[in-house]
């Protein structure tokens, strides 16, 4: 207040807020991950593609180079697994498949 004393809510705010300091560092880190690319060259039927996807169990899947109907069918099939994120970009469409699954705050 005007008399130099803190009211209860202001005092509680001061007590509850821990001192903090933001430090930003730039560093190079070694990325350890794997990327699976399977080139089927149009020789696989829907059943075998679904079987491979089930065995690989990816977290993210990008569908490219299929007919619109086949791509949509496979996308809907994969959507049954709520843990799998399926992307089916249009021709010339750019997508962002970055992930924050292993982002750490220190």
TrEMBL record:
InterPro entries documented for this protein: CPSF2, RibonucZ/Hydroxyglut_hydro, RMMBL
One BP annotation, GO: mRNA 3'-end processing by stem-loop binding and cleavage
UniProt family annotation: Belongs to the metallo-beta-lactamase superfamily. RNA-metabolizing metallo-beta-lactamase-like family. CPSF2/YSH1 subfamily.
Localization in the cell: Nucleus
Zn-dependent metallo-hydrolase RNA specificity domain mapped to chain residues: 29-89
Keywords on record: mRNA processing, Nucleus, RNA-binding
Coiled-coil annotated spans: none
Keyword ATP-binding: no
Organism: Aegilops tauschii subsp. strangulata
CC terms in the record's Gene Ontology section: mRNA cleavage and polyadenylation specificity factor complex
GO molecular function: RNA binding
Protein name per the record: Cleavage and polyadenylation specificity factor subunit 2
UniProt-listed Pfam families: RMMBL
Predominant place of localization: nucleus
